[in-house]
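In response to the reviewer comment on reproducibility (Comment 2.3), we provide here a single inverse folding case reported in full, input and output, so that an independent group could reproduce the run without further information from us. The structure tokens appear first.
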């Protein structure tokens, strides 16, 4: 019988025999053979598969592992995509330009000041010494030139170390230099997190793919912060050793390499031992890497770590206002970021030597006035426990060292303590307050008398003194309350050579030379006379010097006397108010206002007669520019503090307009033969140097400007400006200026090359005192500066324009020399009203807007603070004045008002 399985045995029995059979007798396969599925038991029957459970567990585990790996990969990819999506681009590093400080240079090309938000000096890779590169690499990233942006072994080492560190310790870093560049330049954060480290690593790999190693190292060495406000290795070399990079030795270079890890903890001033230990470790690493030899490392480790304090270049003493005005101009033109971080090279016109002279002259003038008028205002403080017998330094030195210096105290002054009010003995410290050397001396006898005249000193009083070079004495000093300003500039170019904005920049940053709008007084009068010269009026023309009234305003001369018919020459020389008023009424205040605006003395001014006496407001710098315009023959001179501005690559971004150098066209040969077709053209002869191209507008004719210059020479020689010209044997001109109530004292004048304007007054307008005129207060300051500036210059005279005749004639008050135009007769006063059709109208004189009284004038917009003026510096503003009644009223007692504006 054949069964379905193709055999003569039942399959079920076959299974049974496979399970239970042991041999052929049981129907099993013969020995050595397998039957059925080939699985046999020990008796020859079939057996079950071995390790089935293990393989099932292993298969399930593998499936779970694959699933987990896939899920983890998906999560990792999602996280990677999130990280990559907001990663910054590294393309900007290709054109990397670090924020670099801008520098201001004085006229002699010395660094005058630095402008910086971060103090950084950029140095290209090729200029960085190898020892500095090797020191940084040895300390920060020994495998910098072999890894691809990330050092896996360093990461593993740092991770294992961090796991074994106790809680509270800072994790060990493993960032490569490239990773640090990514963090500094692209991420801008030091947050300790895995996400930041992942971003840092990704960016580092991209940077390595984008930039060469040398460029990466260059960026790092110029960007890394190394403490004490220094960014980059070049700034750090200056800060800690006061040296350029190429002068550092191995020990100093190794110290720079020690700083990136922690500039604070390795500060050589605060932690010298830690700083030296870290430096020595860097030296050892440099030796192990072969950058230096073992002997060089030992020699460098033996060197003491002695930092040399670096004094950051600041403004030339006294020139802080100049530098601040330059900074404001740069910010206005280029913005704050470019000014402070753009690496601008700014060449200014400042003359450091002249600046110091001008600063000293102004300060001495203010101290002289304060000494004569203010009196001694008492001590600036008091130390308890100091008695007349306590002359031992230990009794007062510690307490004196702890007292802060008053703002405005000069560097040459010292803060002293009165030890004996009877003998005038004082003590002071020389050197830094923390370890100052005690000194004692006696106050000068004249200062003791001055002090006692106002109040008696006590032992322990703190006073400001100035130690004397000889005799061991000390002069008593105090900060004046009066202020002053000065501008000295080149007549031809407008380059400002010196600028003083007040007593002390540390006390007040307000620049009184450029920001204070004050009444110029009679120093405005030359522009009234200049307007008359432009209208063809002769210097010998006479106007009546007699009483005149407009409404309730009764102007008068300073001397309160009257000369009758007076030439313009004499009237300007002696600053006669009444002649100036009649002249302004004749030529029209509209013409005077137009002249002042054309010369940029004012933006606009009221058409009222008091303005002719200086009842307008202007600045010292503006007046200097207007006087320079006269001195330059009528060419508009615009004051400038900056010669040029260059970018970090040396390209000129800006320079003042108006004057420029241009190569002169080539000149033909002196005796060129007649050209012919058969002869070649002869080469041209090059011109001798470049030509000056002056495109500035001619706002005043050279003839009129020279006429005013000639008239003002007599102001210096025998007029109101004699005191200002004392001892100067050069051709100079000038004009005094004193405003109403003696609130402002001016002197303005110039030589053929230099113009100087001086102002003295209180910040809040107040009288300087009876008879305190510009000649008495400002004149001596002007004299001292002009003597110094002219001492080393050739003696020049004012050039005479074509068509002008110089003539000596009798003015009726003595002989004078004046300049006359071709249609003018020297010494002749013509009848200006011969062809007049009627009397002058209010429109001619400006009387329709004349204030009724002096108090109205003070409240009128004509003397108000212009927009942008500083509070407390100019006069107040008020409603427009109304026209006064016609007809002169009775003169008030005392001879009448002097008049708003100029006095003398």
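Designed residues, in position order:
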């Amino acid at each position: 019988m054949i069964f379905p399985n193709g055999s003569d045995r039942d399959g079920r029995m076959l299974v049974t025999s496979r399970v239970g059979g042991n041999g052929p007798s049981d129907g099993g396969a013969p020995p050595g053979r397998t039957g059925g599925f080939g699985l046999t038991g020990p008796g020859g029957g079939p057996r079950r598969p071995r390790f089935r459970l293990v393989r099932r567990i292993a298969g399930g585990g593998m499936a779970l592992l694959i699933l987990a790996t896939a899920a983890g990969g998906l999560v990792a990819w999602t996280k990677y995509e999130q990280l990559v999506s907001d990663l910054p681009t590294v393309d900007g590093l290709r054109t990397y330009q670090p924020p670099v400080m801008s520098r201001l240079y004085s006229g002699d090309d010395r660094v005058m000041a630095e402008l910086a938000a971060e103090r950084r000096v950029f140095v290209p890779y090729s200029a960085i010494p190898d020892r500095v590169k090797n020191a940084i690499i040895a300390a920060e990233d020994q495998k910098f030139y072999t890894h691809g942006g990330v050092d896996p072994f360093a990461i593993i080492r740092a991770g294992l170390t961090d796991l074994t560190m106790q809680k509270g310790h800072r994790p060990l870093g493993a960032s490569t230099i490239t990773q640090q560049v990514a963090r500094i330049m692209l991420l801008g954060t030091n947050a300790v997190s895995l996400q930041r480290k992942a971003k840092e690593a990704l960016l580092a790999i991209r940077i390595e793919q984008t930039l060469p190693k040398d460029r990466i190292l260059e960026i790092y060495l110029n960007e890394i912060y190394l403490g004490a406000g220094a960014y980059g290795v070049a700034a750090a070399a200056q800060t800690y050793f006061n040296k350029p990079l190429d002068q550092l030795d191995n020990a100093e270079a190794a110290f720079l390499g020690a700083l990136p890890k922690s500039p604070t903890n390795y500060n050589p001033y605060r932690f010298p031992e830690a700083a030296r230990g870290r430096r020595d470790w860097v030296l050892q690493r440099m030796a192990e890497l072969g950058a230096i030899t073992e002997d060089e490392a030992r020699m460098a480790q033996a060197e003491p770590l002695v930092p040399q304090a670096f004094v950051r270049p600041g403004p030339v003493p006294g020139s802080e206002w100049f530098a601040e005005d330059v900074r404001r101009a740069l910010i206005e033109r280029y913005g704050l970021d470019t000014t402070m971080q753009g690496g601008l090279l700014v060449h200014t016109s400042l003359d450091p030597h002249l600046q110091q002279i001008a600063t000293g002259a102004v300060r001495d003038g203010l101290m002289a006035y304060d000494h004569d008028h203010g009196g001694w205002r008492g001590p600036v403080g008091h130390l308890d426990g100091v008695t007349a017998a306590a002359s031992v330094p230990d009794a007062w030195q510690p307490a004196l060292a702890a007292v802060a210096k008053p703002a405005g105290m000069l560097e040459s002054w010292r803060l002293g303590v009165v030890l004996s009010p009877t003998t005038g003995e004082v003590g002071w410290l020389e050197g830094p307050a923390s370890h100052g050397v005690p000194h004692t001396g006696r106050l000068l006898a004249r200062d003791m008398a001055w002090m006692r005249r106002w109040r008696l000193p006590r032992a322990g009083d703190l006073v400001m003194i100035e130690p004397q070079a000889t005799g061991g004495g000390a002069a008593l000093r105090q900060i004046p309350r009066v202020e002053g300003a000065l501008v000295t500039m080149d007549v031809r170019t407008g380059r400002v050579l010196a600028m003083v904005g007040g007593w002390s920049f540390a006390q007040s940053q307000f620049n009184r030379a450029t920001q204070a709008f004050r009444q110029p007084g009679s120093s405005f009068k030359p522009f009234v006379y200049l307007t008359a010269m432009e209208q063809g009026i002769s210097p010998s023309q006479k106007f009546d010097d007699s009483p005149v009234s407009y409404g309730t305003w009764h102007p008068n001369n300073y001397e309160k006397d009257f000369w009758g018919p007076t030439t313009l020459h004499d009237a300007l020389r002696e600053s006669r108010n009444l002649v100036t008023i009649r002249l302004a009424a004749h030529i029209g205040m509209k013409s005077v206002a137009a002249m002042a605006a054309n010369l940029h003395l004012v933006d606009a001014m009221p058409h009222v007669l008091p303005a002719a006496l200086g009842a307008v407001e202007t600045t010292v710098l503006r007046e200097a520019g207007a006087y320079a315009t006269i001195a330059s023959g009528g060419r508009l001179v615009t004051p400038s503090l900056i010669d040029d501005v260059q970018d970090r690559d040396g390209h000129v971004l800006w320079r003042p307009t108006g004057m420029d150098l241009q190569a002169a066209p080539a000149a033909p040969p002196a005796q060129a033969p007649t050209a012919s077709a058969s002869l070649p053209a002869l080469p041209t002869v090059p011109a001798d140097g470049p030509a000056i191209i002056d495109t500035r507008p001619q706002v005043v004719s050279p003839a009129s400007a020279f006429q005013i210059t000639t008239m003002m020479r007599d102001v210096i020689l025998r007029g109101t400006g004699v005191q200002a010209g004392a001892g100067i044997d050069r051709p100079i001109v000038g004009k005094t200026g004193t405003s109403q109530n003696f609130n402002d004292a001016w002197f303005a004048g110039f030589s053929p090359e230099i113009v100087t304007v001086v102002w003295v007054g209180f910040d809040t307008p107040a009288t300087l005192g009876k008879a305190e005129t510009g000649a008495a207060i400002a004149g001596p300051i002007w004299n001292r500066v002009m003597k110094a500036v002219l001492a080393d210059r050739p003696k020049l005279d004012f050039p005479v324009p074509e068509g002008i005749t110089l003539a000596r004639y009798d003015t009726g008050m003595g002989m004078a020399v004046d300049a006359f135009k071709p249609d003018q007769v020297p010494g002749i006063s013509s009848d200006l009203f011969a062809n007049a059709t009627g009397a002058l109208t209010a429109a001619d004189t400006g009387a329709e807007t004349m204030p009724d009284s002096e108090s109205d004038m003070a409240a009128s917009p004509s003397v108000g603070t212009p927009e942008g003026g500083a509070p407390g510096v100019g006069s107040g503003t008020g409603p427009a004045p109304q026209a006064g009644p016609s007809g002169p009223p009775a003169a008030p007692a005392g001879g009448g008002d002097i008049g708003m504006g100029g006095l003398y």
